[in-house]
Amino acid sequence: MYKFFLFLCFPIFMFSQKQKIEGTVLNAQNEKLSLVSIEVYNSQNILLKTLTTNENGIFTLEGIPENSVKLVIKDLEYSKFEKDLDLEKQNQPLLIVLKKDIQDIQEVVMTKQKPLVKRKIDRLEFNVENSNISSLNAWEILKKTPGVTSSNDVLAIKGSQSILVTINDKKVMLTGDELKNLLENTQGSDMKSVEVITNPPAKYEASGSAVLNIVLKKNKIEGYRGVLSSKYVQSQYAKGVAGISQYYKKDKLSVMGSYYRGTGTYYREGTDYVNYIEDQQRWVSTMNRKDQNKSQNTLNFNVEYEIDSLTNVSLNYSGSFNPKSFGTYNVPTLIYNSQDVVESNYTTINDHNSRSINNTVSFQADRKLNKKSKLTWTNYFAGNNNQKYQNVLTYLDFVNQSPKENNFVTNNKSDVQLYSTQFDYQWKNDKWELESGSKYSFVKTSSQLDFSDNENGQLQYRADKSNVFDYKEHNFALYSSLSYNPGKWNFKAGLRAEKTDLEGVVSEPYEVNKNNYWKLFPTLYAQYTTEGNHQFGLSYGKRISRPSYSWLNPAKSYYNLFSYFQGDPKLKATIIHNLNFTYTWKEWNLDFYYRKEISPSMEISYQDPSNNNLIYHYTNIEKGQAYGLSVYKNFQIKPWWSLSVSENIEHNENYFIGIDDLLYKNKVWNWGSDVSTSFTLQKSSDWKLEVGHRYNSPAIQGTFRISSSSATYLVMNKKFFNKKLEGSLMVNDIFKTSKEKISTKYGNQDNYFLDYRDTQNFIISLKFNFGNQAVKNVKAIKKADEQDRM
């Protein structure tokens, strides 16, 4: 029994041999190189064995019957390496340094590139800097990352939209449009890679089913540089963004600052259809939403100082200021009888405006304890303040009733404050790595909804429809993970424990909800690489998805007289189990996966025939599960021509309790496809062209069934004046095929809406670089997890 246990825990011990020589493969920058193939030949030039370096660039030479051998490395990115070795005299570890392979072909200097996609034990790495889309912004690059799908500006990984976005492994404290604005103002030229982490290790927050980590290039060379950029977007209406980014590094000091200002008009088309079986009526509402935002301001400042060779400190500030977004919606609704004749109608005039202010400040200190270990301390504060005002006037003309008017006014204010502190410890040698840490966070939110209407002939405050919601949450977490990389086998395991204490207080009707719980989140990984570079991986992870703070607010937020949104203060966190089996060979990447969700939380809609209301409600459904296969492959057809194929097929099931208290099952086979081809038209000026097509077959979400959609895009970019000026053109949704139909149909529920988010557009971008362009971005500061729910 003890041998079986030893085999499970430390399988390498069962196969290790006494006589062996270890080696490490590096590049000229002293970076350890993983997945490098090393061929071992005897004196007759006969191949004896092929070795592969692990994630730390280490390989082990053992079990060789010859005394003299030759090591040969043939790598696409580096020059060929050969070394004769006398095994009897070699008593020290080998150190192999590979040099870049630069070839002169027809007077064009070409540097061989890394593979676009690399599979690591716990993530898939997409090499942005060697791709044809590095001139785009971070938002567009994420949408084109293998394994990531996008539908109407919503990102998903393997069908799940519960995604945590990080920069250099540090949490980004924005969501929705604010996150999109930040990423649109992040230059792709500053990005090294994007990591798709479907089973995040224990050091990551337990929230979200997957992580998208943006890795920025490091700030290595001293000097100053700046970037002036502008972007013009023409869709239904025009939009624009302009800004400046500046970077400076001198001795021990690194500074980055940026400011972007945007303005424009945003448009969205929608039509609601509601069939009331009881009354044999059909209600049809047409709403074309047009909102103007003349001042969108994004500000970032980051300073990093090296106190000594062992200690670094960082201070970061970021702010987002949108003082006023406003618009007036004119929404006609026609009511058809059983003979499909219009017998009633009403028109809603919705005059509204909103503002938002977000401020974040963070401080981080890094201390190297010795060559193998370091300690990091991070403090974070965030404030989020929003206000939404609307004045809704309704003209009603119902059959057998006199025409009349109704007017109501709502003013919704919310304030979120977050503080967190975190310690992280890391120890690492050639084969072992230990990570451990702790975190405490406190969140306080306050939401107030004031409702007034003219039910008594004049506009009066209504206490029964107004609401105050206060929420507090304490979260304490401990984590530890251990990885072991002996060679062909790689192992990693971790455990994260999180304790949550929360309290929500509702004013109308008065109610107090308290809850506290401990949750454990284990992660397990195993990876094996054969001599022929076939790579197999198996991983498991448990995650949690806590509801956004606004989803906990039970106040009714009215869209019009007959429709509103309502949250739920008793929402439960969703528990997610992820299981993945991966296979990689010659840039073929396959991922078989299974996902189980316990009490998924999501927005659903239902109609109430007693008062003809259509209600959008955030709630928990019973359960959900999905299994599928993802495939990615990049074909380098010619040095100047490549083809990228990303496919995902999935079977998804959602179980929910209907308003008739019956259990329903919503299921679908979903296919997501992203095919693109890229051309280098001129190497010297980085003149590149890419054409792509994305397709999503019908999908589900709780009670909803979502129709298929697709989009075709074109991207072209070129550099001028010794690469100081960069210009790009992008055309999205060329054939305007991204419209969706979202429907609910079960029991007496029969409604759907058509949605188009103004995705057909063209974008012209210009960027002027000045100063020393070898300087890269300073690293981002670690941020907390809770603001993702703001």
UniProtKB/TrEMBL annotation:
Signal sequence interval, chain numbering: none
Subcellular location(s) per record: Cell outer membrane
Coiled coil: none
Domain Outer membrane protein beta-barrel: 370-767
Annotated InterPro entries: Beta-barrel_TonB_sf, CarboxyPept-like_regulatory, OMP_b-brl_3
Stored SUPFAM superfamilies: Carboxypeptidase regulatory domain-like (SSF49464), Porins (SSF56935)
GO CC terms of this entry: cell outer membrane
Gene3D superfamilies xref list: Carboxypeptidase-like, regulatory domain (2.60.40.1120), TonB-dependent receptor, beta-barrel domain (2.40.170.20)
Alphabetical UniProt keywords: Cell outer membrane, Membrane
Parts of the chain that traverse the membrane: none
Name recorded for this polypeptide: CarboxypepD_reg-like domain-containing protein
UniProt source species: Chryseobacterium polytrichastri
